[in-house]
Specification:
The protein is of the alpha/beta class. It has helices at 26-29, 49-52, 90-98, 110-118, 128-138, 168-176, 180-186, 188-201; strands at 6-13, 15-16, 19-20, 75-77, 102-105, 122-125, 144-148, 153-155, 161-163. The strands form two sheets. It has a seven-stranded mixed sheet with strand order 6-5-4-1-7-8-9.
């Protein structure tokens, strides 16, 4: 997993009628027809497919990620309960394949929130009013935001600094680029020491050769 330290990039706001979209579920993030693969590459073609594609199959030029200024956005700003619905891990995979490594919203569905940390995406929870103000700035002439995980701050285009909270353990894992497997391998020496001691103290539990 790639480490997340700081990020300076374009922010795209997911809105509907100038309001942040709430209750964006994982089927909206990546519809079921794109779940036939276990590969993590190429999933961006399905990201927000029904939002970014017109009925005739052509790209909708009004969808934010189809607009030239936001096609390389690394931050997504959304409304409440982002990532609700099914537990599909393809949702964060699709965001990563698009290049989005930070999602800012007033609240997240629990499983999606956990899956973000497992895949190197930083989910930031901020009050709705703050998210709405940031979305308005993202739609202005300057769309560049900076997210610094070490200092737990977001710097907006107008120079405002906004702090955010994050669990210390999850912060450390993101900074070091450690997913669940990486965290386990990081403790390999302690695990080997424990296993060696257990073989001596409880030899009857040690596997025997056939």
């Amino acid at each position: 997993m790639k480490a997340f330290t700081s990020l300076t990039t374009t922010a795209a706001a997911l809105t509907d009628n100038d309001r942040l979209m709430a209750n964006v579920d994982t089927d909206m993030i990546i519809p079921k027809q794109f779940l036939k693969t276990t590969e993590r590459e190429g999933l961006s073609q399905g990201l927000f497919f029904e939002l970014k594609t017109k009925a005739d199959g052509t790209p909708d030029p009004d969808f934010v990620l189809n607009r030239p200024a936001f096609q390389s956005a690394g931050i997504l700003i959304a409304g409440e309960n982002f990532g609700c619905g099914s537990s599909r891990e393809h949702a964060p995979w699709a965001l990563l394949d698009q290049g989005i490594t930070c999602v800012i919203a007033p609240s997240f569905a629990d499983i999606f929130h956990n899956n973000c940390f497992k895949n190197g995406i930083l989910p930031i929870t901020l009050p709705h009013e703050t998210c709405a103000a940031m979305a308005e700035q993202a739609g202005g002439a300057n769309h560049r935001f900076t997210v610094d995980l070490e200092s737990q701050t977001i710097t907006t285009p107008d120079g405002e600094t906004i702090g955010f909270d994050i669990d210390a353990g999850r912060k450390g894992s993101l900074l070091e680029g450690l997913d669940d497997i990486g965290q386990t391998l990081n403790a390999a020496s302690a695990i080997e020491t424990y296993e060696a001691g257990r073989k001596l103290s409880m030899p009857w539990l040690a596997p025997t050769k056939a």
